[in-house]
Predict the structure.
Amino acid sequence: MSTELAELGAVPASWTRRHLLGLEELSAEEITTILDKAQVFRDAMAAGRQKTPLLVGKTCVNLFFENSTRTRTSFSLAARRLGADTIDFSASTSSLSKGETVIDTAKNLEAMGVDAMIVRHRTPGTPKLLAENLNCSVINAGDGAHEHPTQGLLDILTIRQRKGRIEGLTVALVGDIAHSRTARSNIWGLKKLGAHVIVCGPSTLVSPRWAEIGIEYSYSLDAILPRVDVFNLLRIQFERQYGRPFPSVREYAHLYAMNRDRLARTKGDILVLAPGPINRGVEVTPDVADGPHSAILEQVTNGLAVRMAVLWLLASGRR
Ligand code: NCD
């Protein structure tokens, strides 16, 4: 094993979880364990060591009922880099169209000897339902507007790398807070690690009730610009609006797009994140998305490291 990976050690005895359903249920210690292990994988990748046969003989299945570019390929690649076999399940060509339930579909896949099932579904709670009905590990890869834990973890890892800490930072989540699972996973993870979180966006998409759990809310990006260390720019989830009143895209861009002018009114050494897919010119202008404050592509690289860490923690040593 390489020098970098020697630091990985064994799965800590304190790690007892079989599933990763959300960051809300994890402790600060558990989140830190995942981040630390992900950093080891990230360092090994940076040193040119891409493959580590830690999950040889294990099988991971991607069970995606919603579209995905980054998350799906990232989980597949993470599993392969660890030496596991992977199956990519496509909902559109499966027997679901013949009336089979999600649980039956998952149980049939599990019967082929699956160690970890990575699930994305538009209905919140689907990964939990499967976790209650299966023996393998279940990983939530996004359930409706509920949670997207590996996205939250990769965002937090990217902040920790660039800023050296999480505690005491002010992180603004800007955009469609009402429908963003990325927002919710960031909120739980960042709060547990001691960051000050501000949710910011149009009043139709940001509830004042976040204040009840200590999250600041703001309808004005301009007002919070000078106080923020990290801006995480979230996409308007057009596919989840369900008739909610939404200001025009042009008006949204006018009020909330991170652009050169707004950048000039920040603290200066700020970090810009976006989970992707980004809509250039809507939540962020191209010069900012591709500029020195942006860590958008680093997030993608970190996503691979986070997913390797999660798969390793959950799937090694189990069947
Ligand atoms: C996010 C998702 O699917 O929730 N994307 C992703 O996983 N990289 C965010 C989004 O779609 O806006």
In short: The longest strand covers residues 137-143. The pocket of N-carbamoyl-L-aspartate is lined by residues 70-71, 142, 148, 151, 181-182, 235, 275-276 (CB under 6 Å). The radius of gyration is 19 Å.
